Amino acid sequence: MIELNADFHIHGRYSGGTSDDMNIPLIASHAPLKGLDVVATADALHSGWRKHLTEHLREKDGLYVSQHSKTRFIIQTEIEDKNRVHHILLLPSLEAAESLHGKFKPYSKNLDTDGRPNIDLGGEDVVGYVNDAGGLVGPSHAFTPWTSIYKSHDCLRDCYGANLKHVHFLELGLSADTDMADRISELKDLTFMSNSDCHSPWPHRLGREFNKVLVENPSFEEIVKALKHEGGRGFTLNAGLNPLEGKYHVTACTRCFLKFNWSQAQKIKRRCPECGGLIKKGVEERAKELADLEKPAHPRHRPPYLKIIPLAEAISLAYGIRTITSKKVKGIWDGLVGAFGTEIKVLLDVDLDELKEKDAKIASVIELLRQGKLRYVAGGGGRYGHPTLANEKDIYYSGDQKTIGDYCGSTE
After folding, report:
1. Beta strands of 81-217 (E only): which ranges?
2. Burial 250-261 (b: 16+ CB within 10 A, else e)
3. pLDDT of 404 above 70
4. What is the CA radius of gyration of the chain?
5. 167 and 38 belong to one structural domain
6. Does residue 51 sit in the same domain as residue 198?
7. Does residue 27 fall inside a structural domain?
8. What is the pLDDT of residues 287-335, one digit of tens each?
């Protein structure tokens, strides 16, 4: 058996808000530096992207390889169904993606214009079509308050109906972790995924969340067995951001990002008294609403969830550099990865004494990270949270901030 580091959800350049740099040669060259053995292709239903995949990849054991690296690619896309639920699709071949494109064509107006298309079908029908194509489906970022299964539904069966038996995984999303999800008993049989959902190929995005997967060999068939935790295969680790870093972890205003307790937000009708913006319920609150268990109950197949941060973020934190894409951060990143092999090794595996010899400042941040002692300012309302070494605190609405009326003046 071997362990693979895998990121099963990314986006290509045809998805909205995605970097033009998202192309296979660049992704393939960056993935080994990150330490990823398997990366999703993204956008496999889009004809233009599929042509790009055909030009740069060749099939090997149901996965695909590029001349630019040893990293394998798994055919993947994300779709939005008629209820605004996002689903990850994993497919056995480009031919399967081509066939599925034909099946979905009558139900979509943007299949060839958006890498993440809208499909005018419910979850049950989506699973049926994908299952017929030999693929697997699971909910993307399951708790996100805009486009997710638990935004639109209160239980999995409401979405997937009779085809729930064909759903074997769920993506936690950046704002949730295993402890939160394992308080919901209907999820006990599903494999949890932690994926980057990245829109650019840079190391602080690609593989910012990833999975360790135990398989006999790198193939689509073996990954399917791991997702179904069959024959000794399975996921051995979910590595991801602390949910506090997620853009929607706590309840917050979507305009000024002021944070609220949910009870406060309801009393003021979910309108921010500071700016009038919409207050969006956080993933933390939604997971609590859905929980039917007082404490997390981890099934035997559930791996640990390890909280990590991108190495560029650790460098920025250690050196007090505000821009993680700066030349100085890149130079330090290059030196560490050059010395130890991959970013994942630096974050998870390199002995701290060795790391201290190379860079004591980075070692101190990674030591805090590995010990679970790193502090965070929570994200919410659409703005990412962040780790901090300072005395930063979350700012919540206290009830005595000025209201919109205070700024309008008296009309008497």
Report:
1. 86-91, 136-139, 169-171, 191-193, 210-215
2. bbbbbeebbbbe
3. no
4. 22
5. yes
6. yes
7. yes
8. 999 999 999 999 999 999 999 999 999 999 999 998 888 999 999 999 9
Both tokens of 111, joined, read 């299949």
Residue 275 lies in a domain: no
Whether 271 maps to a domain, the answer reads no
Structure tokens that stand for 158 in this block: 């409401």
- Strands (E) in 54-180, as ranges, are 57-60, 63-66, 69-80, 86-91, 136-139, 169-171
> Are both 235 and 320 inside the same structural domain?
no
The reply to whether 234 and 147 lie within a common domain is: yes
Where a domain ends, among 206, 229, 245? 245
The CA-atom distances, in angstroms, between 409 and each of 271, 274, 405 are: 20, 15, 7
Is residue 336 domain-shared with residue 236, that is, in the same domain? no
CA–CA separation, 240 vs 186, rounded Å?
22
Residues 315, 229 share a domain: no
Instruction: Write the pLDDT tens digit of every residue in 176-229.
Output: 999 999 999 999 999 999 999 998 888 889 999 999 999 999 999 999 999 999
Tell me, yes or no, whether 167 and 315 share the same domain.
Answer: no
346-359 tens-digit pLDDT: 999 999 999 999 99
| Whole-angstrom distance, CA of residue 229 vs CA of residue 302 | 10
**pTM (global) more than 0.85:** yes
Give the pLDDT score at 68: 81
Q: What average pLDDT does the segment 116-139 reach?
A: 97
pLDDT grade, residue 400 (50/70/90)?
Answer: low
Structural domain harbouring 188: 2-245
Name the residue with tokens 């630096």.
346
Is 70 exceeded by the pLDDT of residue 247?
Answer: yes
User: Is the per-residue pLDDT at 259 higher than 60?
Assistant: yes
CA-CA distance, 106 to 353, in Å (whole number)?
Answer: 59
Residue finishing a domain among 224, 245, 266? 245
The distance of Cα 182 from the centroid of its chain, to the nearest Å, equals: 17
